[in-house]
Amino acid sequence: MNALVRSPLGRSGPAVTPVGLGLAALGRPAYITLGRAEDLGADRDVPAMRARTWAVLDAAWAAGVRYLDTARSYGRAEEFLAGWLRERGIAPDAVAVGSKWGYAYVGGWRMDAERHEVKELTADRFTVQLEQTRVLLGDHLSLYQIHSATLESGVLDDEDVLGRLRALRAEGVAVGLSTSGPRQAETIDRAVGIGLFDTVQSTWNLLERSAGEALARAHRAGLGVIVKEGVANGRLTARAAPAALTAAARERGVTPDALALAAVLARPWAGTVLSGAVSAGQLRDNLAAVGVVWDAGLDERLAGLAEEPGSYWATRGTLPWS
What we know:
Elements: E1 7-8, E2 15-16, E3 19-22, H1 36-40, H2 46-63, E4 67-69, H3 77-88, E5 96-101, E6 103-105, E7 117-119, H4 123-137, E8 141-149, H5 159-170, E9 174-179, H6 184-194, E10 199-203, H7 212-220, E11 224-228, H8 243-252, H9 256-265, E12 272-275, H10 280-287, H11 296-302, H12 309-318
Parallel strand pairs: 3-4, 3-12, 4-5, 5-8, 8-9, 9-10, 10-11, 11-12
Antiparallel strand pairs: 1-2, 6-7
């Protein structure tokens, strides 16, 4: 595997490695990733999930991963990460840490919660959650992102929110947004036009490619691009990968998830892609993507995996929290 070298995320974002670690699946007992029962087992109380999070963070650090991505809504992920940073004595300039505001975790640490998170993209929510994040992460906070900005939410037209983001940016914290849904491209273009954001975090994978051209435009405009859901919530792993991906991965001696993430890394606009690993073994498999040589033949061979965006997001919406 090639060394993970840090480089600036766009013109003004923090320095990151090609693969980062996302904590969405580690900070709470339930998430929409296929195969969690097998991956995590039944022991998902707070101490067990904290220990698992720290073990994966240790593995990521040892492998050279230097971008860590979390959110207020990821259960106790910020708390787990803060404790790990403190216990390991990791200085703020040694790692880039991104978090997000806008969703609140309401799952009560229950697997069978009726709702796990609630969205509110208001200036008041921003102020409250930024303070909560800063209490935990302090000077380690490198990047603060709107969580799942959409055109429909109106957050990109809310001058109160934008003003508070500008003030945060003036304090030296980069600001960004994450996107979701079949209209990601429109949201990305709107964000670029505002001229405020340092980064954008979007879903792009072999099944859902619709944001690619907009992400290329964002990259040309100087924004750093973070790619999430590169393995489509488990649909591009050995557990559920299409036959074409499985065969191509086998020929190259890697797992399907590694080849799926290599597809992301091959995009010239991709600054970093997030691993959602919940074990050191999964992380190791994901990191093999860095050493994969992607070529036009693979692009052509796997082009048929792409789904219509509406269909992709409808399928994602049916994935159970498990």
